[in-house]
Amino acid sequence: MSSHFPCHICSLIFLQTLYGMADLFIIGQFEGKASITAVSVGSQVMHMLTVIIVGLAMGSTVSIAQAVGAGRKKRASRCIGNTITLFLILSILLTILLLFLVNPIVTAMATPGSRSCRNCVLSYHMLYGNSLYYRL
After folding, report:
1. What's the CA gap between 77 and 68, in Å, rounded?
2. 99: Cβ–Cβ under 8 A, 6 or more apart, which residues?
3. DSSP states of 34-59 as a string?
4. From residue 31, how far is each of 7, 24, 36, 77, 117 by CA, in Å?
5. Which among 36, 6, 3, 1 has a CA at the least distance from the CA of 20?
6. What gap in Å lies between CA 36 and CA 21, rounded to an integer?
7. Which pLDDT tens digit goes with each residue over 18-29?
């Protein structure tokens, strides 16, 4: 049973990469260099956060499955409650952090200096980062 988890994780990471590629393809058809840079930089940061969240979710799933498999319903219930609490707090914290740290993130990623390019990256991070709350 546990041998299936890596397959699911690899599939998710592959789909997340395709999501970023689809963004790049669509933006490339209608916008210029600044927008393409924004999507490229923004999707890398969001991809990293998604992988971290998926790792936490996988760990929670394993803990719950072990408790259920051992017939320890009280422990399984506690694991489920802790998982819900963890992701609720994490989603709120990440939303707040992404809103306030979007400028330092863009600066740290060495986004090209053009004002329009930086504005596009900031907009992409704000849009994508705010949707992270709903993805958890």
Report:
1. 9
2. 126, 129, 130
3. HHHHHHHHHHHHHHHHHHHHHHHHHH
4. 36, 10, 7, 49, 11
5. 36
6. 11
7. 877 887 788 778
> How far from 29 is each of 35, 111, 135, CA to CA, in Å?
11, 21, 26
Residue 114 is classified by DSSP as: -
CA of 21: how far to CAs of 24, 44, 47, 60, 82, in Å?
5, 11, 11, 29, 34
Residue whose structure tokens are 């422990």:
75
pLDDT digits (tens, 9 = 90+) for 44-88: 777 788 888 888 888 898 899 999 999 999 999 999 999 999 999
CB contact at 8 A, 19 and 103:
no
Residue 101 predicted with pLDDT over 70? yes
- Angle, nearest 10°, between helix axes 33-69 and 4-30? 160
